[in-house]
């Protein structure tokens, strides 16, 4: 597989074309951003840790029957993935109240959510990723009703797999964000990434934050803590 020119540069990853028109290479960079790109820092080793973390999680999801775009690790910081036409919405599931839910509704951080809460956000940094619902998504043509139903079902299926995976490793999966796309056959496939940059993980006993909130809130030891999460899951770095 030969890497070709850059297709797109996101806040933390760069996407490259390859000599296969159905495949892309994702490069996980050390750039770490928060507040819609207002705070950006380079954190040494983060690209490598997130690339291997994402590959491990996506492989567990594939084993559980959830189709993902990840094909293979191609270097410490790069993965080969299927090319998808991305749907421009973020799917968030929350098992415990935190983050924007707490700010929006004035509820207490740490409250368990039964059933878990599902939310859609439009991917748009300039508008600060506003919350949208099914009607906006269908009316503006971002996805069909059937695709919305698939995204919801898959996001909850991911919850069942990953809640247990993290629980077994002594952590609570508080919430997470997924993005989906359509493959060349028009099937919904999980894209983007699953790393501590896009989820919240708390230690089960101490409730120590083990995700990007360490960066957002200036708590320090960001990559060190991501490595601790990876080691608890048995990921080889
Ligand atoms: P919140 O809405 O509380 O800010 O985020 C909910 C969950 O989705 C958190 O785990 C957060 O990390 C993730 N999330 C939401 N929006 C984004 C985003 O634009 N980028 C990343 N990396 N994660 C996001």
From TrEMBL:
Give a single Pfam family match. SAICAR_synt
Query: Where is each SAICAR synthetase/ADE2 N-terminal domain found?
Result: 7-232
For the keyword Ligase, the answer is yes
Q: Name one GO cellular component term.
A: cytosol
Mention one GO molecular function: ATP binding
| Listed GO biological process terms | 'de novo' IMP biosynthetic process; cobalamin biosynthetic process
Reaction(s) catalysed by this chain's protein: 5-amino-1-(5-phospho-D-ribosyl)imidazole-4-carboxylate + L-aspartate + ATP = (2S)-2-[5-amino-1-(5-phospho-beta-D-ribosyl)imidazole-4-carboxamido]succinate + ADP + phosphate + 2 H(+)
Per UniProt, which keywords does this protein have?
ATP-binding, Ligase, Nucleotide-binding, Purine biosynthesis
* Main enzyme class: ligase
- From the UniProt record, give the pathway where this protein acts: Purine metabolism; IMP biosynthesis via de novo pathway; 5-amino-1-(5-phospho-D-ribosyl)imidazole-4-carboxamide from 5-amino-1-(5-phospho-D-ribosyl)imidazole-4-carboxylate: step 1/2
Q: Does the keyword Ribosomal protein apply?
A: no
EC assignment: the record states: 6.3.2.6
Name the HAMAP family for this protein.
SAICAR_synth
Q: Which NCBIfam families does the record associate with it?
A: purC
Q: Which family is this sequence assigned to?
A: Belongs to the SAICAR synthetase family.
Record-given protein name: Phosphoribosylaminoimidazole-succinocarboxamide synthase
This chain's source organism reads Alteromonas pelagimontana
Gene encoding this polypeptide? purC
